[in-house]
Amino acid sequence: MSNSAIFWPVIIQALITLFLYIPMSGRRINSVKSGTAKASDYRLVAKEPDDVRQMTRAIANQFETPILFYAVCISAFVTGNAGTIMVLLAWAWIAAKCVHVYIQTTSNRLRIRRPVFMVSFVILLIMWLVFALQLGGLI
């Protein structure tokens, strides 16, 4: 497996982040048209209707743990440690993250969303541990 294969899950994560702006923008426009918000409400985003805030939080979440995902993938690539194990973990993480984003932007049920988030969190933790062990020459 090519060392650069690590970047396909990275690309998907970046695209998820970018594409989330489309429905968020649509929800903001609809809230202004329907009168549930004024255009000026979006200056500080404190007064967003719940459906818009749901999408805003989904986007904000793409700048939390995904930053650590990007960092470990790029670090693994740069150090030559983006082998099969790391690539498989990256795909597992992106699969869990896709499910998490879907839940967060649809039903947003915490009873379902939190366990999925925890799966992605544990995978990310494992990625960092594997990277550290590889870097230390232990695996």
Quaternary state reads single chain
Look at the helices and sheets and give the structural class: mainly alpha
Shape: elongated
Q: Give the beta-strand count.
A: 0
Biggest beta sheet summary = none
Number of domains: 1
| Beta-strand content | under 5%
Written as H for each helix and E for each strand, in order along the chain, the element string is HHHHH
What's the gyration radius in Å? Answer: 18 Å
Low-confidence runs: none
Distance between the termini: 17 Å
Give keywords.
139 residues; elongated
General description of the model:
73% of the residues lie in helices and 0% in strands. The protein has 139 residues and is mainly α. It has one domain (3-17, 50-135).
Strands, helices and their partners?
Layout: H1 7-34, H2 50-61, H3 65-78, H4 84-105, H5 110-135
What is this structure, in a nutshell?
With 139 residues, the protein is mostly helical.
